[in-house]
Structure prediction request, 472 residues.
Amino acid sequence: MIDRKDFKKHVPQVIDWIQNYFDQLEDLPVKSKVQPKDIYKQIPDSMPIQAESLEDMLKDLEEIILPGITHWQHPNFHAYFPANSSVESLYAEFITSAIGAQCMIWDTSPAAAELEERMMEWLRQTMGIPANFEGVIQDTASTASLVAILTAREVATDFQSNEEGVPNNLRIYCSSETHSSIEKGVVIAGIGRKNLKKISVDEKMAMVPAELEKQILEDIQTGYKPTCVIAATGTTGTVAVDPIKDIAAICKKYEVWLHVDAAYAGSALLLPEYHWMIEGIEDADSFVFNPHKWLFTNFDCTVYFVKDVEVLLKTFEILPEYLKTRTRGLVNDYRDWGVPLGRRFRALKLWFMMRGFGLEGIQERLRSHLSLNQYFAEEIRKSNSFELMLEPFLNFTCFRYTGQPGMSEKELNEANEKLLDILNSQGKVFVSHTKLKGAYVYRMVIGQTYINQSHVDRSLEALYEAKSLYEA
Ligand code: PLP
Prediction:
C-alpha cells in the first residue's frame, strides 16, 4: 500500500502513462480488436495475496488492458455520440478523486452544492433556458429522464403512486425515434411498457404534434390518464428535432408534463444561433442534456433543468433521522433532486472546463465541429460511391454506400453492413450505423474535442480504402 505522503513520488509514472497515451492515441486502432474473453482470460482468477507494485500494474495496463480499449478520445471516433473530454475537465477529475467527497447534502460539502448551483445558472443563462428553471447534475440522461417520468407520475396521481402504488392507466408519449432510455424509464417507473405510446414522425424524423393530440384524446376517451410527453431535441438515430412549441401547447391544453431530451444536441444551445431548437421551452416542465457527450466534460455529467422544483422534491424527498441537518430548507440538498443518495462532485469539472475554455473557446470548438461536418458532408455529396441520406445537421452526417447498379434494397443493406465492418476493423476510424426507413445507413458524428481537418481527411481516406477492399 502506498502511503499518502508518497503520493507525489509515483505521480510521474502515472502522468507519463497518460501523456504517452495521448501522444500515441492517433496511432491506436480506434475500435478494440479483441475477441470475447480475450481480456478476462489474462486476468488472474483471484486477487493477489501480497501487494503488487505500481510498475507491475502499469505494465499490465499497457499489455492487457489497452488492447481491449475502444478509444473514445481518438479524433477519428465518429460512432454513436461522442463522450468527449478536455484537459481542463481531466485536471478537475483528478482533484475530485483526490478530495473524494460524497456530496449527498449541502452539509457534506457546501462548496460542491453551491458550485453546482452556480454552474447550473451559468449554463441556463447561456443556453436560453428560462430563469424559472433550476438545474441539478445527474449521472446520465437515462437517470434524468427517469426522474422526469417519476415526477410526472406523481403529479398526475396527486402523489399517490408513491403512497399506494402505480395505477395502470397512466400514459406516456414519445416519438418512434426517441431514445430507448425512455422505454426503460417507463418500465422502471412501474407504468408499464404497453402504456408508452410511440407517436409517428414526419419526413424529417420529428414527432407529428397532430398525431400526439389524436392519441391523447383517444386515451382520455378510453379512461387513460395522459401523464408525460417526451420530446427530443436531437434524436439518437438521426438528430431529429421535435417541435417543442407545438408539443408544449398540446401538453398545456391537456395538463401533461413535458420533458425535453436534448442529451446530445443540447450542447449546441451554447451557440445562440441554435436556440430555435428549443423554441417553446418556457412551456416545458423539464429538460436534460449531457455535457459528457459534446461539451468537453468527461463522462459522467448530465444536466437536468426543472421548472417546478417543489414537485421534484415532493417526489424524491425522504428524510431519515440520520440525514436531518440544521441547514435544511436554507440550502440545496441535492440528494432530494434525483434517484441516488450519494453524489460525486461533478460540478468541479464543469467549472474547470467553462473557465479554461471561456464561452468564446467553447463556441469556437463547437463551430469548428459544425464546419468540419459541412466539409465531410460536401465530400459525400460530391462522391459517386456514397450518398447523403439526410441533410447534414449540426455535426452529424447520415450517409451510405451507393452499391453496385441493380442492387436490391436488401443487397444494398448487406453491402453497407459488410463495408462498415471492413471500415471499423481497419482501426483507422470508428463509425456506427442505424436503420433509416429500412435502409442501413452510417452515422458519422464529428465531435472530438481536438479534431481538425486532417483527421476528417483521414476518415474520408479510410472510407474509400474500405470501399476498395469491399469491392476487391
Ligand atoms: N437520450 C438521447 C437522445 C441519447 O442520444 C442518449 C444516448 O446516446 C441518451 C438519452 C442516454 O444517455 P445516457 O447514456 O447519458 O443515459
Notes: Residues 354 and 362 are 8 Å apart (CA to CA). The first strand starts at residue 134 and ends at 138. The mean pLDDT is 97.
